[in-house]
Amino acid sequence: MRSAEPGRRALLGAGQRLLAEEPLTRLSINAITAEAKMAKGSFYQHWRSRHEFFLALHRTFHDELLRIVSTRMTHQPPGLERLTIGMNTYLDVCLAEPATKALLVQARTDAGLADEVAVRNQQAAGIVIADLEAIGWQSPEPVAILLIAAIAEAALQELTTGGRREDLRDALIRLADRPTAVSTARADSGDRGMLCTIRDRTGISGTE
């Protein structure tokens, strides 16, 4: 396969423009090459199939998205403010790019993209772990994984409604900023479990 060049970029750009109006399932190679004003044979000089092309679309989009988000977060110290900046940047970029909805929907339904999606999610989770640690999470890795999934869902919801969902964005930040509440809930649960064990062993009902 050829390395990146004007023709390859033109085809990817054509695919991204078409996705603003058409779902991936209806996007044909003929439509892509016609939009790029290139011969159909030029497509196969870069990709062997539609699947390879769609995979390249995902990678191109997410590489650029990661670059923008990372740039906005670079000069901020880890913590809730940096996490908020990164989250809002991600959501704003997704909302501004009409092709995002088709790409997010395909990522959920195309089994052939499962490995690619897993790598991207792990990559994004790795970025926010430092922020969650600074906030106070003792085990930030699973929280990061769940938070990234929730942010992607918020992006899809905003694309569906066609605008920012401040309620969802606020909820995401509240979820990230709750390590103390979670620790307290675990402690309370542990105390209740111990109390139940004592009652079972002693026959004490807990009522006067």
Index terms:
about 0% strand; disordered C terminus; single chain; elongated; 10 helices; mainly alpha; about 210 residues; Tetracycline Repressor, domain 2
Describe this structure in words.
With 208 residues, the chain is an all-alpha fold. The chain has a domain at 52-177: Tetracycline Repressor, domain 2, CATH 1.10.357.10. 75% of the residues lie in helices and 0% in strands. The longest helix has 24 residues, at 50-73.
Topology:
Elements lengths: L5 H13 L10 H8 L3 H4 L6 H24 L6 H17 L3 H10 L4 H22 L4 H22 L4 H11 L2 H24 L6
Q: Measure the end-to-end span.
A: 79 Å
CATH H-level superfamily title of the domain at 52-177: Tetracycline Repressor, domain 2
Give the overall average pLDDT.
84
Shape: elongated
Please summarize the sheet with the most strands: none
